[in-house]
Design goal:
single chain; alpha/beta; globular
Length: 144
């Protein structure tokens, strides 16, 4: 049995849609991540994508629009987790992300056709999910 056959869900961090961001911040390129997302999708494995929005790095409209266009083209049912940035590690001097930024990204995602958007790092016990119809549901953390 292949290792993949035993996996029922994958999480992928899509940090940006920009080559420049990946080169500067991650010392990498986005294309391998994009290819992995498409490969997971074609194999029928359930997937969730997470993007950490970093102020003045990957929080501009073009970045968010590119990410949401890509996810929608792969499958609008893929869950997109948008996480709020808090300064740490090599970015200790950066400002924390604004919650309003998460809501702006959510609106862009909904406009682009994403159906399941989760907001993270909002200091809430249960995270809101917004559907394409604007319905609000609650995503409870998984039991440990």
């Amino acid at each position: 049995m292949k290792a993949e056959a035993a996996v029922s869900n994958r999480g992928v961090d899509l940090k940006s849609f920009s080559d420049d961001f990946y080169r500067r911040v991650c010392s990498a390129k986005p294309q391998p991540v994009l290819d992995t997302i498409r490969r997971i999708k074609t194999r029928g494995i359930r997937m969730e994508i997470t993007t950490l929005l970093i102020p003045e790095q990957n929080d501009i409209y073009d970045e968010i629009s590119g990410i949401t266009d890509f996810i929608t083209s792969a499958d609008p049912e893929i869950s997109w987790h948008i996480s709020r940035f808090f300064p740490a590690f090599s970015m200790k001097d950066a400002e924390p992300g604004l919650i309003d930024l998460l809501y702006r990204a959510k609106e862009i995602g909904l406009q682009k056709g994403l159906k399941n958007i989760y907001l993270g790092n909002t200091q809430q016990r249960h995270f809101p999910i917004f559907t394409i119809e604007g319905e609000r549901r609650t995503c409870r953390p998984a039991r440990r």
